[in-house]
Amino acid sequence: MFMVVLDIMFKFLECVVSYNRDGTCVMVPPFFINLTVSDVSCICFSTEDGDCISETCDTASYLLKLEDKLNRLLRPIKTSIGEATYNLLTTSGSKPGFLYGLPKIHKLGHPLRPIISAVGTFNYNIAKFLVKIISPLTINQYTIDNSFAFVKEICSLKPLRPITMASFDIESLFTNVPLRETTEIIVNKTTTLTLNEFGLDKTTHGKLLDIAAHHSVFTFNESLYTQVDGVAMGSPLGPCYANTFLCYHE
Description:
By secondary structure, this protein is of the alpha+beta class. The chain has one domain. It contains twelve helices and seven strands. It has helices at residues 2-13, 30-39, 59-74, 78-81, 83-89, 124-134, 147-155, 173-176, 179-189, 192-197, 202-213, 237-249; strands at 16-19, 25-28, 40-42, 97-103, 112-117, 217-220, 223-227. It has a five-stranded mixed β-sheet, covered by helices on one side. Strands 1-2 form a two-stranded antiparallel sheet. The longest helix is centred in the first third of the chain and has 16 residues, at 59-74. The N and C termini lie far apart (50 Å). The relative contact order is 0.17.
C-alpha cells in the first residue's frame, strides 16, 4: 500500500531527480525548479556558480534579524496602535514558512500549485493586521461576493437579444502580481482617515507593507529561500494584493 501511494505521489509531482555532491538523490518537483529560476532567490550562496548550500546558511540568525527589524518598527507606534495590538504584532521565536505543492487535478498533467505555509512566520500576524486595512481596496463595481450573488445578478438580466458570456482566467495570478507596484497602489489609495483608525500614518503603513509582503522566507529541501516578486499563496496578504492590483487596473 505504501509503495502504491508513493507511486501516485511521484506521478502527481512529475519529479525530476537531482543529485547532491554526496551521491544522494533528491526528488525535485518541476514547480520548485521554476521557482528557483524566476520567483525566488536563495539567501545563502556559497559557491561561484550560485549553488545554495544549506549548511552555510544560519537560518536562526537571519530570522532574528527579520524579527528585530519588525519589532524596531513597531516600538515607536506602540501607543498609537494600542498595547494589545502591539503585543500581538511583535514577534520572537518565529520559523520560516514551508513550501509544498497541491496538484491541480482538473488540469492536464496535474501541475502543482505552490503554497507557502506561513503560520508561525515572523510577519504572519502583521500580514493579518494589514488585511483589515487593505480590504476596502479589494472591491469595486465589478466584484461579487460569491457564486450565489453572481447567479442572482445574471438571472436579473433581461437582454433584448442573445448574448454570450465569456470567462477569463489569469494564469499563475499570485506569483505574477508585481509587489512594488501593488504596494505603491495600496499606500497611495489608503486614506488618512482609514489609517488613523488603526493608529498608523502613510510612512509607517508603507514600511509595514514592505516587511509583510516582501520578506516571504521559506524552506524547501533543507535550504532557505525568499520570494523576490509576486505574492505567496498561503500568506494572508496574497488574496488582498491580487485583488487590489486587479481592482486598480479594471
